[in-house]
Amino acid sequence: MRRVTLSFDNGPTPGITEQVLDILARRGIHSSFFVIGQKLLDPKAAAAMQSAHRVGHWIGNHTLTHAVPFGDCRTAAFAADEIGKTEALIGALACPKKLFRPYGRQGTVGPHLFSRASVDYLNTHQYRTILWNAVPGDWRDQAGWVERCVEQVSAQHWSLIVLHDIDNAALPRLPELLNRLDALGVVFEQDFPPETVLTEVGQVVNLDPTYVVDSPVMPIVQTSNA
Ligand SMILES: [Zn+2]
Fold first, then answer.
1. Rounded distance from Cα 8 to ligand 1 centre (Å)
2. How many angstroms does the Cα of residue 104 sit away from the middle of ligand 1?
3. Contact of 40 with 48, CB cutoff 8 Å
4. In the chain, where are the structural domains located?
């Protein structure tokens, strides 16, 4: 049995996010929306986030500006701005376990993802840092992303898929994707595969040291796979 967790990044986008919510509601699927802080300054975007939260989706923090990875600006002040100011904008809609997802630059992983200062900030402030394990490329390949997503889901037991509630991304073919996943017999989850949870309750749990640009080997606390 394959498990699938959906996540929607880089919104909220007025006019798009609401339609994504309608599609998910018809299927009874709960997901997470990793929002960009500066977009929340638009009241319509903030309202879309509130709608998502109201029906049970989780709201996560996906940086303030989504422009410079932590590996390219390693100061503590930058980490605090990008994470803390977004969390303030999310406010009371945050999960009890505050969720954070780094800016990956085209969905790639590598040493650009984190600085030591950003990991320290996430641990000090008790964030649950969430990566991904399926990036089908909805924002760059309308023709191919659904098929790629089905392949990625088929190849692993539990997929955490990154989609985007922005223009020209997942929305036009989201119903088709969900039909394909139903045909595969997947079970939709809201929580995240353990290997995609990098930090929680103030410590690193699964963060590969090679994702931290200026880190010596970081202590890794093994989590159970249960
Ligand atoms: Zn993003």
1. 9
2. 6
3. no
4. 3-211
Task: Classify 190 as helix, strand or coil.
Answer: coil
CATH no. for 3-211:
3.20.20.370
Residues of the chain by 3-state class (helix, strand, coil), percent to 5: 40, 20, 40
Distance CA 104, CA 213 (A): 13
pLDDT digits (tens, 9 = 90+) for 164-210: 999 999 999 999 999 999 999 999 999 999 999 999 999 999 999 99
Taking every pair of Cα atoms in the chain, the longest distance, rounded to a whole number of angstroms, is: 47
What spacing in Å lies between the alpha carbon of 223 and ligand 1's midpoint?
26
> 161 CA distance to ligand 1 centroid (A)?
12
pLDDT tens digits along 84-121: 999 999 999 999 999 999 999 888 899 999 999 999 99
Per the CB < 8 A criterion, the answer to whether 65 and 38 are in contact is yes
CB atoms within 10 A of CB 42: 13
